[in-house]
């Protein structure tokens, strides 16, 4: 008989409604907790029949059924943190508020009060009861509409968000996170207010309507981080990063806009070794074929991004690049994550406009390479460093971001190559980009053959 090896995990609790569509509610909370390495438990307050297009029906559980779930969970589990979601009625809000007074662990209150359409979901008495629950909260996480209901303050900018957060802290919450998803603008700003300070977390707005369940997911991520022992500011920062990625790379499911991807970071981490191996395969093919004619003076790097990469640390590349030798080409060291700065930053910004791009390599550029590109009739883009603004030139590491935005920002067609004609002290190069490693390798070898 095999011996077991128990997997110890912190425990989180969600007190919320069930979403049959899986994008929000208890289902989203448990999936998010699991993605953060936390064992999730639940107290279900209501059962909803819904999908990616909306809610068909809702049934609120009797208070007695809610209470017995509380007893079952509290009797057996050492809860590290809890959150609330849809509480549905005045009686349930009051019940949870009474129970919260006994909690010896952090409580995240997500006040589900206003639908995406703007409709109020709770009767006035229930809204007033929320004040008692907020008084027991470690952090309360309203969106702009919910903050207006709770405080009477219309959240339109950073100043009004801070004012609303301060008002919620006056109600007794240790902190308030005023979410910025409902506030118009190219940047989403989530404002965390405590008695000591105000911190703003910023993320570029994602062009998608697949945001159903985003509030539940964010609150669950904060809860999971708190259960793991993070301080509140760290928990909120990591949770907002998680949500931004989960929305950008949302699930394409159902007939509506889709669903938040609660497992996005798990899948991204799982793809790391495959991505690194793909880069190694490309490097081996370059060495075997001897792509010396394409190696620039600065050397060539091959960069591969994980499927949901957002940072340089999530790109694999050759440490020290590939350089020419007397007998061909050779990588200076092995492949590791974070090894590239120049090409990796270009690829990451290119993914802002073409997120399907995952691989890139920098090659030599001169008149012969330009002729070869024309002969191949590839889609080619280019940028002129002479047009680079002074503030970009003076900021270390910002040229590649500027180059990618200038080259690809308004371009619908995905290019095969991007030309950098260089400048004083800057070698001209060609960047080849592709959605997969095989395509990148084939294109590079075809270009090399054409030069020879």
From TrEMBL:
Keywords, in A-Z order: ATP-binding, Kinase, Nucleotide-binding, Transferase
Renumbered residue ranges of the record's region Disordered: 1-23
Top-rank taxon: Archaea
Domain Thiamine-phosphate synthase ThiN: 279-443
EC id: 2.7.1.49, 2.7.4.7
SUPFAM superfamilies assigned: AraD/HMP-PK domain-like, Ribokinase-like
Entry's Gene Ontology BP terms: thiamine biosynthetic process
Protein name: Bifunctional hydroxymethylpyrimidine kinase/phosphomethylpyrimidine kinase
Record lineage: Archaea, Methanobacteriati, Methanobacteriota, Stenosarchaea group, Halobacteria
């Amino acid at each position: 008989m095999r011996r077991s090896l128990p997997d110890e995990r912190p425990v989180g609790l969600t007190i919320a409604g069930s979403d049959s569509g899986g994008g929000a509610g208890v289902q989203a909370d448990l999936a998010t907790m699991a993605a953060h390495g936390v064992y999730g438990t639940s107290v279900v307050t209501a059962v909803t029949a819904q999908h990616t297009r909306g809610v068909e029906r809702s049934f609120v559980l009797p208070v007695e059924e809610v209470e017995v779930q509380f007893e079952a969970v509290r009797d057996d589990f050492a809860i590290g943190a809890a959150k609330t979601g849809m509480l549905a009625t005045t009686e349930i809000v009051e019940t949870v508020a009474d129970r919260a007074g006994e909690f010896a662990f952090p409580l995240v209150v997500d006040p589900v009060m206003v639908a995406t359409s703007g409709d109020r979901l709770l009767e006035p008495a229930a809204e007033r009861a929320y004040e008692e629950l907020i008084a027991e909260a470690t952090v309360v996480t309203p969106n702009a509409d919910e903050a207006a209901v709770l405080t009477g303050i219309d959240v339109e900018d950073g100043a009004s968000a801070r004012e609303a957060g301060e008002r919620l802290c006056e109600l007794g919450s240790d902190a308030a996170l005023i979410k910025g998803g409902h506030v118009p603008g190219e940047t989403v700003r989530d404002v965390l207010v405590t008695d000591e300070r105000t911190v703003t977390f910023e993320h570029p707005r994602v062009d998608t309507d697949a945001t159903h369940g985003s509030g539940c997911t964010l609150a669950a991520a904060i809860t999971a981080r708190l259960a793991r022992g993070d301080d509140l500011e760290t928990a909120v920062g990591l949770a907002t990063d998680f949500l931004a990625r989960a929305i950008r790379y949302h699930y394409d499911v159902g007939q509506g806009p889709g669903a938040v991807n609660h497992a996005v970071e798990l899948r991204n981490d799982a793809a790391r070794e495959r991505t690194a191996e793909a880069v190694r395969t490309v490097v081996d093919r370059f060495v075997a074929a001897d792509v010396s004619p394409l190696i620039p003076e600065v050397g060539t790097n091959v960069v591969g991004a994980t499927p949901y990469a957002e940072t340089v640390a999530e790109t694999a590349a050759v440490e020290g690049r590939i350089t020419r030798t007397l007998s061909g080409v050779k990588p200076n060291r092995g492949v590791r994550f974070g090894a590239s700065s120049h090409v990796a930053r270009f690829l990451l910004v290119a993914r802002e406009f073409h997120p399907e791009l995952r691989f890139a390599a920098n090659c030599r550029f001169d008149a012969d390479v330009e002729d070869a590109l024309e002969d191949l009739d590839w889609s080619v883009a280019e940028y002129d460093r002479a047009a680079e603004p002074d503030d970009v030139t003076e900021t270390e590491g910002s040229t590649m971001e500027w180059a990618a935005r200038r080259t690809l920002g308004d371009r619908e067609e995905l290019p095969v190559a991007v030309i950098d004609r260089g400048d004083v002290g800057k070698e001209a190069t060609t960047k080849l980009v592709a959605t997969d490693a095989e395509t990148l390798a084939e294109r590079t070898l075809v270009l090399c053959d054409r030069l020879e």
